[in-house]
Design brief:
By secondary structure, the protein is mostly helical. Helix content is about 75%, strand content about 5%. Helix 3 runs antiparallel to helix 4, helix 3 packs across helix 5 and helix 4 packs across helix 5. It is globular.
Amino acid sequence: MVHVIYPILCLAVLVLFLKRRPYLAPVEVVAVYLFSTILYMVTVAAVSITMFLPELLKTSTEYRLMPYIVLNRMLVYPLLLTLFVNWVQGKRSWTVRAGLYVLWVGVLTGIAWLNDYFAILLYIKWTTFDSLIMWAVMLLVPVGFAKWFQSLRRKDLAEV
């Protein structure tokens, strides 16, 4: 089942990303994608190796699931975070931004549930509420990074 659903999920994320309406410059997309990749990997590592709460999260060690672990860390979550930043940048209304935020937290929590269901990431002492809180915070960080990166680009362009 995982060999059917997860490739479809990855293709859907890729198509969604390629069909997006660009609100960010290409260099900003690359910067936000790389930042989101590092942010997700550091967060998973921190949650996996936490000294105070041992064994919250484990990565599957099954050989057949390794491609999905890589796709999860390098494609699915970082592209979804980048898509969120791109779409939030294009919306001016706070109600639309809040709606996107809630929708995106739900989508990312749903994918986290799929990862647990398919044993890609094993949540041991983890609840859906923990995932909601984690994604609510993790969605704000790339948005702040994008705003900071845009201000740096504006300064560089103004100096030229």
